Write the C-alpha cells for this entry.
Amino acid sequence: MSVLSVVGGQWGDEGKGKVVDLLAGRADVVARYQGGANAGHTVVVDGKQFILHLIPTGILHPDVRCIIGSGVVVDPIALVEEIEQLRASGIEVGSNLVIGKRAHMIMPYHKVIDAHMEELLGVNRIGTTGRGIGPAYSDKAARLGVRVCDLYDEKVLSERVRVSLAIKKRLLSGITLSREELEAFEEDHIMEVCGQVREILKPLVRNTDAEILEAITSGKQILLEGAQGILLDLDMGTYPYVTSSNTGVGGALSGLGMPLGKVDTIIAIMKAYCTRVGQGPFPSELHGDEGERLRAEGGEYGATTGRPRRCGWFDAVAARHAIQVTGADAIVVTKLDVLDNQETIRVCIGYEMNGERITIFPAEATILERCVPVYEDFPGWLAPTAGARSLDDLPERAREYIGHLERIIGKPVWIISTGPGRGDTIEIHNPFSVPEERKV
Ligand code: IMP
C-alpha cells in the first residue's frame, strides 16, 4: 500500500492534470480533497484533450475508483454536466465515481455573490474564477452551507436553504440584483435545481471517509489529487489573493477524513517558470514582450476561464516556501520545453526590499508586492526538448538547469514533463515507491 499526495507547488496551473493522469495509471483510488469547479485539469490522451474541473483525473483510467471528498465544494449542475460530457466522449462514469455526503454544494446564489463581491472590491478584487468558491466555503465556515447529503432529505434541504437565503437576503439588501440574479435567491428555484440533480447523483453519493479508510486498510495505492497551488492556499498563500481552501496535504487530511501518518510521499508540481491568474503579488513576473513570449510559447490561458495567465521566471523563494509548508519529498518540473527558445533562463533566488535581502517568503502581500527579484542566470539550451523521454534525450544545458533547480530549492526532481501527452515525460524516480526515510 502507498499513499501519494500530489500538490500544486506554485499558483495553480502547474500541470497537475497531466502528472496525476500519468500516476493514476498505477493507482487504485484517486481522491480530490478541496477546491471546486475553479480547477481546470488538462489531460491529453491519444491526442484528445480533456479538461476536468471537479471529477478526479483518475476517471480517464477505467479501473481507478475516483472520490470527490468532503472538502470539495461541489457545484451539482457543473458536476452533472461534466459527467455527461465525459460519457459523451466514451469515458465510463458510474460506480467508478463516488461523491462525499459531507461535501458542501455550490448553489446558484454563491456565484451571484462571488460576482458582486468582486465588483464591490473594485481595485482590491481577487480576480476569482467566478465559480462561487469563496461564498460556498464562507457558508460552510458560517454553518450556513448545504451539503450533498441534504439533497436526500427534502425537509432538511428546504430548511437549510430557507435559513441560508433568509440571512443572505437581509445582508444583501443594499445590492441591486438583476431579475436573473434574484431568482438565485428564491427558495423554489434552489429546490428545483436540487431536484434536477438529486436522482442523477444518488447512486454516486457515499460516506467517502469510510471509503478512504477501507482503501487504506485493504492496502490500495491511493493518489491524493490537489487542486490550485500552495501559493493560493488560504493560510500559506499570498493572502488575500488566494483561493478559499487548504491546497496542501493538511487539506487532504481534513478534506478526506484521512488518518494522520498515512501519507507516504508528497510531490509538488512546479512549472519550469511561473504563472498566475487573477490579482496578487508575483515578484518574478515578466511584463511586456518577455511575458508575452512565455505566454505564447506556453499556451498560458486559463483552462477554466480562458483568461491570459501572467508569466514570469521560476521563483525559488516561493518554491522553497511551498516545499517547506507542504513537506514535499521531491518536485516534478513541467513544461520544460516552453523554455527551449530562451537564450538566457533566469531563476529568482532571493528578493530585495529597500536594499535588504529577503530570503523568507513574506506573509504580507503588501511587502511581497514591493520585493525586487534577485536572479541567477543560466544559458539556455536553444534546442528542442519537446517530447524527450529520458535525461539522455535532453541537451546538456537543460540537464544542468534541472540540476541548478535541485541545488537552489534543496529537493530532487523526480519527473520532468516535456509535453502535454502521457508519454512526453522523463521519469527519474517513481513517486509511488516510498522513500527510504519515510519507511517505518
Ligand atoms: P477562486 O478560487 O475562484 O475564489 O479564485 C481565487 C484566486 O485563485 C484567483 O486568483 C483565481 O484566479 C485563482 N484560482 C482559482 N482556481 C485556480 C486554478 O485552478 N488555477 C489557477 N488559479 C486559480
In short: The pocket of inosinic acid is lined by residues 11-13, 38-40, 126-129, 131, 133-134, 227-228, 232, 241, 243-244, 277-278 (CB under 6 Å). The chain is about 30% helix and 20% strand. The chain has a mean pLDDT of 95. The longest strand covers residues 344-353.
